């Protein structure tokens, strides 16, 4: 089994992008931290042949739901990004694509994030979101189409 | 969708998140092994520790960093993470040693990577005082098997904690240097350091 450090090195950036797309810039770092802490805890039980990235995105999905439920805090408009405690600029905070992504209906937003940012297959996306592979594929395609429309309109 | 992949300050953000993860992992006692790299006069050293203590010291170039981490993952546990704070004490003692201000190490050790006779050998290495040397057969006697001279050579070559457990002080009976896992130049450099 690979040392966990390698898992962080290989997938840390991808999970951060997914977190930013799914919970927004304010909660993204908390979601990333909770995802990797939970992954570290469960790592010894992960099957050798498992798709590590899909496993991490699945955990990130659960952590995002937890954060969403816990809070009252939700994906905020991009002009309300707090500066306190954030040492580095979140390049997605004022990125028009991420801003448009966050306005998509949940299912489309998550399907686009997990497929295009997380690199999951439509089948793996379906396992996370429920529903069929075809529905996950459609949600992702609709999401991209809506994204284009919104970006062209803006 | 290349516009969905901005890079920006991502490397720094990830470094900070990694640090936060290492702190939380330490707090929750989730790490099998924490490690860090330190500089030294004999080149970069990888230091690794379990909850019990320092478990591995490796010379850069002796084996590749990812090979050392892979070995630790297999032999100790896969939850291996760069966690510099866990190595603060060991790093400070090594710095004092290389500055000539420390003659023996007090940091807690975890000897699980040396088993059986190899363990008996490395446990006796610290009996050879700072600045002195002993022959392979003298160490064999110290470890309780006077005739196991060759096995002492193997145990020294596989010492998981070089420098801290001073296998560099074990030399041939004729006074010549003998082998060293970190290479003969490092062995000479460590012995020279201890003459000052």
UniProtKB/TrEMBL annotation, chain B:
It holds the Pfam family Methyltransf_1N. Its main location: cytoplasm. One of its GO terms (cellular component) is cytoplasm. It is found in: Cytoplasm. GO terms for molecular function: methylated-DNA-[protein]-cysteine S-methyltransferase activity. The keyword Repeat does not apply. Keywords: Cytoplasm, DNA damage, DNA repair, Methyltransferase, Transferase. It catalyses: a 4-O-methyl-thymidine in DNA + L-cysteinyl-[protein] = a thymidine in DNA + S-methyl-L-cysteinyl-[protein]; a 6-O-methyl-2'-deoxyguanosine in DNA + L-cysteinyl-[protein] = S-methyl-L-cysteinyl-[protein] + a 2'-deoxyguanosine in DNA. GO terms for biological process: DNA alkylation repair; methylation. PROSITE patterns: MGMT. It is an enzyme of class 2 (transferase). Residues 117-195 form the Methylated-DNA-[protein]-cysteine S-methyltransferase DNA binding domain. Residues 35-111 form the Methylguanine DNA methyltransferase ribonuclease-like domain. The active site is at residue 167. The keyword Membrane does not apply. InterPro entries: MethylDNA_cys_MeTrfase_AS (IPR001497), MethylDNA_cys_MeTrfase_DNA-bd (IPR014048), MethylDNA_cys_MeTrfase_DNAb (IPR036217), MethylG_MeTrfase_N (IPR008332), MGMT (IPR023546), MGMT_N_sf (IPR036631), WH-like_DNA-bd_sf (IPR036388). It comes from the Bacteria. Its EC number is 2.1.1.63. This enzyme catalyzes only one turnover and therefore is not strictly catalytic. According to one definition, an enzyme is a biocatalyst that acts repeatedly and over many reaction cycles. Belongs to the MGMT family. Involved in the cellular defense against the biological effects of O6-methylguanine (O6-MeG) and O4-methylthymine (O4-MeT) in DNA. Repairs the methylated nucleobase in DNA by stoichiometrically transferring the methyl group to a cysteine residue in the enzyme. This is a suicide reaction: the enzyme is irreversibly inactivated. This is Methylated-DNA--protein-cysteine methyltransferase. It comes from Nocardioides mangrovicus.
